[in-house]
Design brief:
This protein has 163 residues and is of the alpha+beta class. 32% of the residues lie in helices and 29% in strands. Strands 1-4-5-6-2-3 form a 6-stranded antiparallel sheet. Strand 2 and strand 3 form a beta hairpin. It is globular and about 45 Å long. The C terminus is likely disordered.
Amino acid sequence: MRPIEPLPLNHSWPLYDLRTHLAPILLDSEIARSDIALAERGLGLWHCNLTDDSLNWTAGVYDIFGLERDLNVPRPLAVSLYAPDSREPMERLRAYAIKHKRGFTLDVDINQADGAGRCAMRLIAAPIIDAQGNVIGLHGVKQLLPDGALPSRRLDPTIFVML
């Protein structure tokens, strides 16, 4: 796991700050709308429906996790690929984000399913809130990090990994 003692208030942020955390993608609308362009830069978009924990990923997320693109990935499988010392903080921040309607950013380690080894990933997550104010899902960006990348609270356009 990347950060030391990831307490929720050290890694969470208010929803009005979402655009700031996604700024590198938003700067280039062609990249933001292209699944392949995102994947080539080590980026992927994701969505988790909280009613059934179903996941929806773009190609870049499959690549980061070392899974075949378009595979139906149950959340327990995805969670099992987080390194043990990254899994618990991710789950804790996820619960905090849902309860307090806040986004979070966390650098984690993933054990890739294809046997390629361990990789570092920046996870950016934000809740989706319905008209009644209930959190119904989470969505965000996952960014592949090169070895030695410094922890950050947002995407870093200087470290896009070209695959």
